[in-house]
Amino acid sequence: MIYCKNCVLPDTKPDLSFDEKGICNACNNFINRENIDWDKRKEEFLSLIEEYKTNENWDCIVPVSGGKDSTFQVIKLLELGVKPLCVTSTTCDLSDLGRKNIENIKNLGVDYIEFSPNPAVRRKLNRIGLMEVGDISWPEHIGIFTIPIRASVNYNVPLVIWGENSQNEYGGPAFSTKSKTLDRSWLEEFGGLLGLRIRDISDNYGVDHKDLLPYVYPTEDEVKNVGVTGMFLGYFIEWDGYKNAEIAKQNGFTVSNEIISGSIVNYENLDNYQTGIHDYFKFLKFGFGRSSDIASMHIRRNMISRQEAVEKIKINDGKYPSEYLGKKLEDILENIKMTVEEFDLICNQFTNKLIFETDKNGEIIKDSSKRPVKKFNIY
């Protein structure tokens, strides 16, 4: 593994690239923000909004999860005089904190739709996603992109305003990092399909197609007839996850009383009990976890040194998800009819043997906390 010379992201991260100095594109994207005229971008956004404002309908659809960023997003849009219709695709295993923060967004003063897909079908998709592509959150990552677009079509509200362009913040292909729009092609490339298509679920697992409607993107004709246009607010307004969290807290957002397992902060990934499993599989596949992402963002903002980040990562990255937000692993897995033993076998199946140590029999070597032992250190 090769690590960025500035932050701590490795070359195993999909679409991450390095310049001749060994600096990753996520760091260079952040440096290039200094060259952006944010006042001009803001004026561009306000002009865009005026084109979509009408006395007969909402100004835009705003997809929200209840997290710090979507809370900030709503606060900022209200400050700018925008009248949004907020749309949530309810998460797979909603936590108490998640519910509290969703209710907080509603109370900020917005119209709000909360769509809850059939939980029996969702649990089946959680299990299929975990077994097939190593992602228990597969249906959630599809629904957060399809449900808001369905709302756009059904309510005839063409403008959909998303938050950050994750490809810019975390490192992605050049064409995607500079984009201010999100459309169907963005979903197919970065939205979490992981090669598992909806028709595969219907054909291979006998799930009725109508039960999968929440995860199906509207047709091209439906999108075209309404004129659906997706924009990233983070393109027009300087985006900072830490500052977003501080502003959100000032407006009723509730954080955890302790650092989130597998992370180094207490203000994000609070809404879903399954998130610990999702982040653990990211570590198994690519050799880095959520704490590496956050530590890298903090390095770019001069909040911590690279060495401090390395020490935090050694402790927090790749923690076995024995519990998350106070809910035990066996209770989380019970919802998808899976035992811890079955779960561990799937973990082994998706553990990257190019990154982690194996014994003479090819078995993954793990430490006393069930964390796989990496072949490489961070320098």
Task: Give a concise summary.
This protein has 379 residues and is mainly alpha-helical. It contains 18 helices and seven strands. It is globular and about 70 Å long.
How would you describe what is shown here?
With 379 residues, this protein is mainly alpha-helical. The protein folds into 2 domains: 133 residues, no CATH class; 201 residues, Rossmann fold, CATH 3.40.50. It is 46% helix and 7% strand. The chain is built from 18 helices and 7 strands. The strands form 3 sheets. A 3-stranded parallel sheet has the order 1-2-3. Strand 1, helix 3 and strand 2 form a beta-alpha-beta unit. Helix 3 packs across helix 13 and helix 15 runs antiparallel to helix 16. The longest helix has 17 residues. The radius of gyration is 21 Å and the shape is globular. About 2% of the residues have low confidence.
Provide tags for this entry.
379 residues; mainly alpha; Rossmann fold; three-stranded parallel sheet; two-stranded parallel sheet; 18 helices; 46% helix; 7% strand; globular
Provide the CATH architecture of the largest domain: 3-Layer(aba) Sandwich
Q: Structural class of the secondary elements?
A: mainly alpha
CATH topology of the largest domain, by name, is Rossmann fold
Order of helices and strands: HHEHEHEHHEHHHHHEHHHHHEEHH
Q: What is the radius of gyration computed over CA atoms, rounded to a whole number of angstroms? A: 21 Å
Mean pLDDT: 90
As residue ranges, the low-confidence spans are 171-179
The helix fraction, in percent, is: 40-55%
How many helices in DSSP terms? 18
Biggest β-sheet, characterized? 3 strands, parallel
Question: Major sheet: order of its strands?
Answer: 1-2-3
Query: Into which percentage range does the β-strand content fall?
Result: 5-15%
Which word captures the global form? globular
Number of strands: 7
Distance between the termini: 10 Å
- Count of individual domains: 2
